[in-house]
Design brief:
Length: 371
Amino acid sequence: MAKYSIKCSRCGAPIQWNKTALNVSCEYCGQPVNQFKKEDNFKNKFGTFLNKIPFPSKEKIQGKFKVLLSKQNILSESQLEFIGTNTNRFFSKKRNIAILISIPIISWGYMKINYPIKAKPFIPDLPSVPPIPEKTGKFVLYDKSNIYEELVYRSHLCKDKKTESERADCRTLTRKFKNYIDIESGVKFGDWSIFRQAYIGKWNQDDLIPSYTAKDGTELAHIAVNCKKKIIAYYSAGFPDWYSEFSNWEEKDNKQFRREIPSLYVKKMGKLWWVDNYSFNEDFENGEYLSWHKRQIKTYKELLSEVLKDKKYCPYNNKNDYRCTPLFRQEHIDLYSNAVKRQKDNYKGELLERRRNAVAYNKLISAVCKK
């Protein structure tokens, strides 16, 4: 069996080892074999991994780098020669090339773990008909309107105002609020706890005590939190007084009023909060962050592409094809172009709103889960 020469990790002396014996020790200092066996295995595995990566040759990388430098008009010949010399020195070691190649791989891994935008579609386990928490008046502030993320979001919403004065008023005068959780109201069931919430909003911003109800008297939703799985779900407090004034309720709505399902739930995925509101936001069902907004952009891009490719674009049958004039085609190009811009703007607005809400969700988790 082949033997391998390994250096002792304690004294540096060479040791002959066949990679199977478990009782080998350094004959000079007595260091046991298992100390450096792990190190050797790691080196071999990592070396094998590196050898499998199809690194571009250093000559190829250097060649492309020299081409880029030759096309610039800023550096002098002496400066280019200095850069070239140091470039040759850098790429002379395969370790440096491995580091250079690994940077985008590590960046990709970091983004995939901390900011996952895709996952296998799933629905988190959510409680049905959770207990109703009692009011205690022990309020903890977890969200307010005068934060940086709120200002950025409001700036986006107010950007279409005609004058700077109107935009400033829109940013500073609207949506003032403070959100509280009644921390002592919590009722624990399984991995979940459910709390009452209260707030001071634009209509009651002069009040010193937060309100458990909205301006029309409707009780604010109860907040259920799963600290273990980082899930927050909002449950209706019951059927509102104005329920009978409307007749077009869907079964989904009735389930929410009966507290069988939440009206909204979010889950922390890495550093992102995925959202489901049983309507257009369906991140979990689709397995993609901001899936609905991305799909809207894609749909209108495809419609625009279809019109641009077909010089004789005509969505009508033969009986009505007389309506398909060049002007008709141009109108649809403009229509879908504007639709793409509008959907991109909606996507950006939703992204900014989620970043803003993430601040509140993180503080809510901190307030509840530190107990």
